[in-house]
Design brief:
Chain lengths: ~150, ~150, ~150
Amino acid sequence: MLDQVVLIAGVTVMGVLEQAYFSLQVIYARRKYSVSPPSTSGPPEFERVFRAQANCSEYFPIFIIILWVSGLFFSQGLSALCGLLYLYGRYQYFRGYAKMAHGRLAPLYFCAKVLWVLIGFSALGILGSMCRFYLDLDLKQLASSI
Amino acid sequence: MLDQVVLIAGVTVMGVLEQAYFSLQVIYARRKYSVSPPSTSGPPEFERVFRAQANCSEYFPIFIIILWVSGLFFSQGLSALCGLLYLYGRYQYFRGYAKMAHGRLAPLYFCAKVLWVLIGFSALGILGSMCRFYLDLDLKQLASSI
Amino acid sequence: MLDQVVLIAGVTVMGVLEQAYFSLQVIYARRKYSVSPPSTSGPPEFERVFRAQANCSEYFPIFIIILWVSGLFFSQGLSALCGLLYLYGRYQYFRGYAKMAHGRLAPLYFCAKVLWVLIGFSALGILGSMCRFYLDLDLKQLASSI
Ligand SMILES: N[C@@H](CCC(=O)N[C@@H](CS)C(=O)NCC(=O)O)C(=O)O
Ligand SMILES: N[C@@H](CCC(=O)N[C@@H](CS)C(=O)NCC(=O)O)C(=O)O
Ligand SMILES: N[C@@H](CCC(=O)N[C@@H](CS)C(=O)NCC(=O)O)C(=O)O
């Protein structure tokens, strides 16, 4: 069974590494701008790095969850590919946001689009599985037989 | 194996859609009350929407994790049902909190109760599995034979 | 298949209980220091409890994700053990941070080390699986035959 998830597991570990990198950037920014916990406010340069990591952390579980559902129910390869694109987009988001608030927008739209694709894959895959299990209907076969 | 998780996967995708809806509400509130990132403070109307989404995001991974453990180890159908109740409760929480701070309380208690049920299911299911695997003891059979 | 994840599922439920405990501490602190939602600022005593829970919540999905990948691809027993150590470290983190900001540092370093071990396990496990599936190469056998 593990061979059906090994690629998305690989993307998952890369995602964890990316989150670790973002966290480290917040720790460095705390030192550089002398913002000691529990405070979270400081110069805009600090707040942009802080919020960039907060936003990425907020979406990280959503991304991983939909990546796995899409990988299990639709296609491992396509999902892993979308996963890589998302991680790349988040890296651009973090860098763009850290530079200036406006810099977060283009990569955010890109990431959102990738998430919608994964949501679409998941919905299709689950629908197909439900038809197979509960209606004994194979959508794939049906589509190809038309 | 996928037929054993297809219902909770369906609830999971609905949860992701709900989180997407909450995020969009924050983006609209940011525009409406002119609160530009990285700032997160503004009029109470904005802060309630912002915090409602933050609170839902904080609990989302916990919810999904316990939903899957409960679905895998206890009962898929019952877990999926609890999942739908939780998502409904969170929608009420978001709307209630956005209107006034007090409006978040009743739905929050409801959601917390659903989570405790899922935690209970998970604990029972894991206990049963452990007895079966490590003590070769079938609790279900034992209970029905008494 | 469930016997291969029952231990990490057990650690997962313990983690969920720990997060519930942290959330309750924030609710008590809100009452004690009269910090009504949506506000998140108050006396330093409150802010330390608030941030301690926020930080634990931020890392919780990352921890659970890497726990499961490591448990599935490397070793269930070792991963579950690391999981227990992490949960213990997070408890110390919360208590230390609540007392004084500096008290968070030693447990945080400990938790970070445990996470790195789980990341290492996951990477090794995934690499091994990939070699097996895609190159038909069994690294374990190779290592033991040298
Ligand atoms: N927590 C987010 C939820 C919505 C969201 O993802 N917003 C995008 C577009 S405005 C963003 O980049 N937010 C910046 C931030 O979270 O600091 C927020 O506060 O804005
Ligand atoms: N992060 C939460 C943790 C505890 C919690 O879930 N509190 C409930 C009841 S006071 C809540 O609705 N909090 C509002 C909020 O998070 O803004 C908090 O700051 O309060
Ligand atoms: N969100 C974290 C990301 C980095 C992190 O984990 N920092 C550690 C070491 S400075 C911490 O304990 N932060 C305290 C906090 O999050 O309140 C932060 O704001 O600091």
